[in-house]
Design brief:
Blueprint lengths: L21 H10 L5 H9 L6 E5 L7 H4 L11 E6 L2 H10 L6 E5 L12 E7 L9 H10 E12 L5 H9 L6 H10 L3 E10 L3 H11 L2 H10 L4 E12 L1
Parallel strand pairs: 1-2, 1-4, 2-3, 4-5
Antiparallel strand pairs: 5-7, 6-7
Length: 243
């Protein structure tokens, strides 16, 4: 289990993948949703062109250039803020966006977002430990920082379907079942967009490296023994709420 590094905000939940395996997680980001379905769906709900965009739990900043228009997502935010609790990852994110105008990275947590009230228009939290019950302090912070008419998006695994969903249920049996998670988000006024994406990697070596940072060794060995190739179908939920 990862431990909190010096300077991490209180209440931070250690990440077992990117914190311990930053290079392999970069491979994972490159292989997830290469077709851009998540971003297209988000943009159809709330286009961030000209907006202030918050990437909450931005890690090493992989997605920050997309929101700033440096990659072809179809939108260009006027201001982009990445918030990341791990100081070393935040430093990597700053390095990634150092030549981009209007982009900055702050150390902070979902429970204590280092931004003023009503200061952002669109928020993304992608696999940033918003797994349903227990994330209420983070949701309260979203209500504080998002402007009226703004939208927050949370991308999370859907363990009820897809090959990866089967792996997820096997590897994380203590995570609340999908029906509990769905009731939680609905009770807080969030909408669900079920999406079918994929992990698609260039080599088997890359695929295996990504599987091994997401699952314990025994589960990873079993998955890799039964699943050939370099890709897997992957169901996710895009949760969203207008404020």
């Amino acid at each position: 289990m990862a431990t909190l590094p010096p300077g991490a905000p209180r209440g931070t939940i250690p990440s077992p993948n990117i914190w311990e395996h930053t290079a392999a997680y970069e491979l994972e980001n490159r292989g997830v949703d290469r077709g851009g379905l998540i971003e297209r769906t988000m943009r159809g709900i709330h286009d961030w062109s000209g907006a202030t965009f918050l990437d909450l739990g931005c890690g090493a900043g992989f997605h920050l250039p997309r929101w700033a228009g440096a990659e072809p997502t179809g939108g260009r935010a006027a201001q982009v803020v990445g918030v990341e609790p791990h100081p070393a990852l935040a430093a990597l994110a700053r390095r990634r966006v150092r030549t981009l105008e209007g982009v900055r990275v702050e150390v902070g947590s979902a429970q204590e977002i280092p931004l003023p009230d009503a200061s952002v228009d669109v928020v993304q939290a992608r696999w940033a430990y918003f797994f349903g019950p227990g994330c209420e302090p983070g949701l309260a912070e979203l209500s504080r920082v998002v402007r009226r008419g703004g939208t927050a998006f949370v991308i999370d695994n859907d363990g009820s379907r897809s090959t990866f969903g089967t792996w997820f249920r096997r590897g994380y049996p203590k995570v609340d079942p999908p029906e509990v998670i769905e009731r939680f988000w609905a009770s807080h006024g969030w909408h669900r967009e079920p999406l079918e994406i994929a992990w698609e990697h260039d080599t088997r070596e890359d695929f295996e490296a990504v599987v091994r940072i997401e699952f314990d060794p025994r589960t990873a060995d079993a998955i890799l023994a039964e699943h050939p190739g370099t890709s897997v179908d992957y169901a996710v939920n895009l949760w969203w709420r207008r404020f």
